[in-house]
């Protein structure tokens, strides 16, 4: 679908007139140097972004998409673009302003406009996907309940209500280049037969199913004239002074970096500074939508060995939070201080009566942990896998940033970035030299299988049944278009980045720099991004991130080119 959109990209590093420096507004209005006092001044990031968009789009070749975006009686604004978000990225010192394109005040699905501004609201970069809607009606024939009924009939599912959000009209461009007016139905608990997991399929490869799979939430675009399903994709997933607590986790490690609340007669696993809280379901059934009231409570600040699962969940959530905040400058999952809620000792009745449930899942904005038996037959919590927790929580990060659609290539990128961040976070705390990848464990969930094996590998996807090159890309309707299969291709490219060396054999960048670049690229992607969009985004952020280190830039750009070419992503 995205191939039918007109594309406009701009970056100061590629602009000979900019000289590698952000362009001030006066540069777009012909104001001579020294007369900046009469240049436009902006009261908001949105106003600045619209100003630059108006001028840059006007410079582009005449195309339908750009014509549509600039159709206005007031050349000072771009009214057919509505603001989606404006978010600072401290790691690069810039602000990302995102817009959606509309037609007749109805959003265009798949459109995306990103404007990057520096701290002075000067232009750094721009990436726009725009289109001109033609041949589609502006008024629906079917109402929203009829669209929901069409999904219910196609899936054989009784659907109560209209989804997780109110239905909304959108314009959708299909692969044949035909425009449709469609109802966007959010988070329906219904899956088409061809998209249902086959026998034994458990998504991430964990041994037992997740509630995300058995209680799915799927977005549908339904033609507002005839009720045909056009497209579908899965959707996932004042400060008090804390008290320092300690205890032994599921791996037998003495942990002394967890925090809780001081109660009148004990302590609770609630870290108000980081907004992290841990509950114990006591082998209750998460399928029954349990109400969580009181977090885990203990009498002594030393939890000892009696609360291993709780210590693991609380400590690992803390590590993920601290990594995102300390390394990537992100404030929790949604970058706005969202609570990290963990629930241990869960069973999931659609799988069985328990007590085993071999899964850990980000579902309903919470982490739910099951348990499995170790070789000695003792139940141990899945909360002990830091990399799996980092992976699952990163799905929440993606949902609240780029919003990569959970299907086909965008969905595989969603899974890939979750793998990359999960493995990075685990090594950050567990490798002997975190910023030197020579001793890293590239296997996600090592020890999950009874054999001691893990779930996937960044260094060797093929060993876990995944392709490592585009020539082996799997075309399938299962698993949301193979999101857990084809993620091996961008995973392999990421491993090649982390391990890239110069001609002298020294690392091109250390792990901290690579993960910052990958994160910054991830949050820049559009919802329908393809594999080929990742190296483009990486090059853009590298040019800003390394602007103060020009000697490093050429080797980094060469490493990006080499890594993605090696896996067939051109």
Automatic annotation (TrEMBL):
InterPro entries, per the entry: FTP_domain (IPR011096), Peptidase_M4 (IPR023612), Peptidase_M4/M1_CTD_sf (IPR027268), Peptidase_M4_C_domain (IPR001570), Peptidase_M4_domain (IPR013856), Zinc_Metalloprotease_M4 (IPR050728)
Domain Peptidase M4: 263-398
Record domain Peptidase M4 C-terminal: where: 402-569
Compartment(s) where it occurs, according to its Swiss-Prot or TrEMBL record: Secreted
Cofactor: Zn(2+)
Family annotation (CDD domains): M4_TLP
Ranges for region Disordered: 1-26
Enzyme class: hydrolase
Residue intervals of the FTP domain: 80-126
Compositionally biased intervals (Basic and acidic residues): 1-20
Alphabetically ordered keywords of this record: Hydrolase, Metal-binding, Metalloprotease, Protease, Secreted, Signal, Zinc
Pfam families named among the record's database cross-references: FTP, Peptidase_M4, Peptidase_M4_C
E.C. designation(s): 3.4.24.-
Family recorded in the similarity comment: Belongs to the peptidase M4 family.
Known role: Extracellular zinc metalloprotease.
Name of the protein this chain belongs to: Neutral metalloproteinase
Organism: Nonomuraea recticatena
